[in-house]
Amino acid sequence: MTAAAAPDSTTLGLRSRAEHLAAPLPPLLAEAEQLARTVLMGEHGRRRAGAGSNFWQYRAAQPHDTARAIDWRRSGRADQTFVQEKEWQIAQSVALWVDDGAAMRFASTVKLAPKGDRARLVALALAVLLTRGGERVGLADARLPPRRGAGQLTRLAALLSQDAEGDHGVPQARDLAPRSRAVLVSDFLGPVEPVEAMLTEAADRGVQGALLQVLDPAEEAFPYDGRTIFESMTGALRHETLKAGDLRDRYLERLAQRRDRLAGLARLTGWQFSTHRTDTSAAAALLWLYAALERR
């Protein structure tokens, strides 16, 4: 009888890392499923004209409309002819990007979720809703192209649970399919130039979507006073001051300027922009994102 060989240190290390990575997945996915259930789901449609079977609205007939397209019953009740438009129901590809930078790990108190946790939860809950509606959902990079199915949600949860080493993540548009949809979730407190470049390239491809800025309430109120040490989550940046209160007005002004710039970029490229605080309902952010994808 031969005894089984003991696992070597490499195997144990790999197993430990795998278990550590997998540990947050069931709670994250379960919480996202629960959050998604707070949104009342009717039959899914994109609320614009196109190929589909459900009536959406009547419109006045145009010269290019054929006689078969005319709704003669509706037209008989008026002095002009009308055409029925159907609700657009073709599945779309929706790509998600959630900032995985270290800055997203910030929480001002232990009672609040880190920004990254809230961002992942809302993004994954949105993926649950879209998947139930028949959409293809994935990441805005080559790691996970948009697909349908419950298995895609598990893979999405796994990848969203990974953290990067830098302070701020950088979104890219090169892997976005033309005329698809995209959602970016971040604090957007890092360099704004990569976001501007990504939105510009996305717009050139006909990609539209939504930006959701997730902030801790302390980042909006700047409640600091007296001697304070400000340090980035990676420790790369550090600033000490004896009069933190003197920085409040300047900080709030720059935060407002950043929001105005993001909102302007969104308007210019046909995207939607909103902000969300981690001390408010995650359902509100989810509802806004879901509604933003319905807009053109």
TrEMBL record:
Family matches, as InterPro entries: DUF58
Domain DUF58: 57-259
Pfam families assigned: DUF58
Name of the protein: Uncharacterized protein (DUF58 family)
